[in-house]
Amino acid sequence: MPPTATLEDIKTYQQKVEKDKITPHNLPPCPRCRVDSSFFKIHAYRERRFLIITEMLIQAAYCSLVRFRCPGCGKTFTFYPDFAIPHKHYSRPTIISFAGTYTESETMTYPRAVMVDNSTPGYGQNDGTLAPSTIHRWITTLARFIDTCRTALMLLLEENPVSSICRDLARLVIGPRKYKSLRRKKQLSACRQLVVIEAVFQAAFKTSIFTKLATRCAFA
Ligand SMILES: [Zn+2]
Q1: Could you state, in chain order, the average pLDDT of each consecutive group of 10 residues for the chain (220 residues)?
Q2: How far is the CA of 127 from the centre of ligand 1 (A)?
Q3: Which of 71, 82, 126, 129 could disulfide-pair with 120, CB 3.0 to 4.6 Å?
Q4: What protein residues have CB closer than 5 angstroms to ion ligand 1?
């Protein structure tokens, strides 16, 4: 079964939103006027659709996301739960798992990367399934979290100065048939590094780099 946020995760988050348990403290300071995020005020709640996978069936689940506003300049910021990746409907465990499946194997193809146990997660009603091109886009997205990965790496090295992670990352290769441009090679490489860093970070700190770190790094 593909990893996914569960309906329970989404309901639990909705309850936190309703009980005013979502605070802006983990957000970075306002990039415009440097006001500390602890002064941000709630601006709005926006219902957001997530796609979760249950028994290979892709299902929609809804919860509210909180938008905070900087009192200094009025800029607004969305606070994302740790199962979410900004602007993506599928949940973080699903995105990282499929992107990892594709980038980890030198011979993997996109049509095969969407398969789990010889079938592809599907939508039920209209017979659509998870598209190979979706994985391609997820890799592009995951390649953008450069600051988050760099900070995670620093924390891992502080925790364990003799860690082999830097050597391990340097040894990763991307199969030459997977890209036609240097730009794509860099994206595949950055995505593969994120998948490795996330796994080592989870093992060391029992939490995802997306729980607090990515928020703190403004998802950069
Ligand atoms: Zn501001």
Answers
A1: 94 97 94 96 97 94 97 96 95 97 94 92 85 97 98 97 95 93 97 97 96 94
A2: 46
A3: 129
A4: 30, 32-33, 35, 70, 72-73, 75
